[in-house]
Amino acid sequence: MSYCVHCGVELDRSEKRCPLCQTEVIDPREPFDEQAVRPYPRRLDPITRQINRRFVGSLITIVLAFPALLCGAIDFSQAGRLTWSAYVVGALVLVWSWTVPYFLLRRRTLSGVFIPGVLALLSYLFLIAWLQQDLSWYLPLALPLILMPSALIFLIVYLVIRRLIRGFAIPAAILIAAGLLIVAIELVLKHHAGGPVSPTWSLYAMIPCLALATVCLAIARRQAILDEIKRRLHL
Length: 235
Ligand SMILES: [Zn+2]
Fold this sequence. Notes:
Elements lengths: L1 E2 L6 E2 L34 H34 L5 H20 L5 H22 L6 H24 L7 H25 L7 H32 L3
Antiparallel strand pairs: 1-2
Bound molecules: zinc ion (ZN).
């Protein structure tokens, strides 16, 4: 019986590398044996996982479709057309679009899950505006107030996933985005209200955000310098 020199895990003769820490196994008394029966399968079965995810996706679809159809049927039988049930059906479709693609998509990318969710939210709000015969708030208010934070969230998550920002640069990016967003929200609200379009109260929120972001960036830069020194001195 061999044990991993690095992590101490018990090793089988079928192991060329430690299954836990990937350290190479060199034991002259018990050399690697290709023919030895492996104590567990070579890899996890991705098909079972795919079926499980599809099952959860289908289950959510059924759970959401049932009340949608029921509401639609009751409304249609009473009014002869869809009235109040359109709000319910729209909300359920929105919940579906936020949850089910996550389970059904084989390759879950940021743009594949996030962008359809934002478009679904915009579509639902458009449906509400259209049902109320009042589009006056949709274009000047709903559209920018959803697109701006969505674009910033998308950008930050993209930068984090791609490892373009890390460590303290992440809270710095979030603070900068939050500061800019608050000012943009104030400008949108003022533009809609018809007053002078210049930032006032939002500056009191943006300035502390930017100050904190500067501190975070300074720490991130210091961390990068420390890491570089450690790397060069082989510490
Ligand atoms: Zn090990």
